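Reply to dn_fold:

You asked what the input looked like. This is it:
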Amino acid sequence: MPFGKWLAPIAALLLLNAALGFENWSGTPAVWPGLRLAPEFLALWLVLLVAIRAFGAVPKGLVTSLAIVCTFLVIGRYLAVTAPILFGREINLYWDVPQVPRFLAVIGQPLAWWQQFLVASGVVLVLWGLYRLLRALVGILARRAAPAALRSIPALAATAGAVALVTAYAAGVPGTWERVSKPVTPTYARQAELLFTALLPDRLASALPPSPPFDSDLALLKGLDVKLLVLESYGAIAFDHPESRRRLAATRDALARTIATTGRQVVSAFFRSPTFGGASDLAHLSLLSGIDLSDPLRHDLLLASDRPTLLSLFERHGYQTYGFYPALSWDWPERAFYGFDEFLDGPALGYRGPEFGPWFIPDQYSMARFDELQPIQPDTPPRLLFFPTITSHFPFRQVPPYQPDWSRVLSARPFDDEDVERGLAYQVGDWMNLLPEYLRTIDYTYAWLAGYLEQPSPRDYLMILVGDHQPASSVTGPDAPWDVPVHVITSRPELVERFRALGFQPGLEPRRPVLGGMHELTWLLADAFDSQRSLGSLPGAPANPAPARQVSVGTLSP
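and this is what came back:
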């Protein structure tokens, strides 16, 4: 084939590969053509080669079928790569599809009927145009590129090399991700399994491990408020590494002194997180549900169930539960599973200060703002606050200064100008060694926690600090354990004794062995607060909670 006649087939090859392997443009909903090899494109190319070898030509029906498949793959890929940008997570058809009518109603509300008709017609035309374009590209490959490739040794060699590259990528060979785009087909398969399981109550119930009984009477709390803070990226590296111990010694000692001088005690232990370096939701929900969610699919299935949680336990005993998520600035339909009595996200806080890094609302401000927005009155019921912090989130860049004046931190000018300039001017030194930057965020966390404990409170509270996961390997190095520290801070000696009986150690320094997985911490908390469980009968640190106390409740959420 003359070189000029190769132009259209080569262009079709490149365009179709780009259509099945595009990426987001600079973190926006816009996309740009990917230059990496798309596994789905390679599969389509192999189907064409096999069809020509078997039939002598590609049947028109197969061309149409492949074009339809490509259209769905392109749409699926756009959703797969855009959802993390817009929603901070992967696409989830169980939760996202029911939101489509509401989304359409919101965007269509200001439009007249004829404008809505034009928009809908435009969407249909765009999808039809996409299909026609993809069909034309597949047709060019079927009629011209594939037949020529079967007669070309270099083309067949290139095809064999592409197959070897994608096979190596599937096997996890290092470096191949730079040349192969992430396929979207597994996303479709995962969503199909999720929907199939979630919509069948019996299958859903059997897919999830048993839940804790959540039969604790919580009597030992005596109506004490509980502040359950999940500290972002607070992992065992904060204790295991010599540099961590040196750099954090001053603020950790200051926090310990504050705990003592305010009439409180602290006990600590290590637990094993279900995740490492990210995916904090797995840790959050493992803690609340008492179910091991190290498998992300199990996490998604749990969200489709009506399993009980710590929240439902506390609500049953008269507590008001608060979900406090300053990191969220987008709609989060999954919170329907959690069932918080009150939910606050980032926009609800009205932060007016300087923005330090991508997670711009300082944790100190968030904690102070919550107390301002939700003041405690004489008739306020006991409350359980669930607060995942955010300042210590990767990439550990600019860290806000600590403001000793907690009333000022709520103002439009929470910090001195020189502190703001110094904080915003900070640059990461070595992206391959983020330990120093990470320790700055933990240092800040210790500082604001100590400051908060010093603030007057209208009533006493129990504070539980739980690390969600270890930071990324750029901080911990390779082969780091998945352990995270847990601290329980209280002024009630009887609670201190309960946790010590469960294996916790006095002080801010947790010790090994690890007491169990994050989901087993749920069991320990319920036992610690239960008046029916005497100190002598507490199980200590069970590697596996007693099967006799397990219950399984798993039906489809309404």
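DSSP finds 21 helices and ten strands in the chain.
Hope that clears it up.
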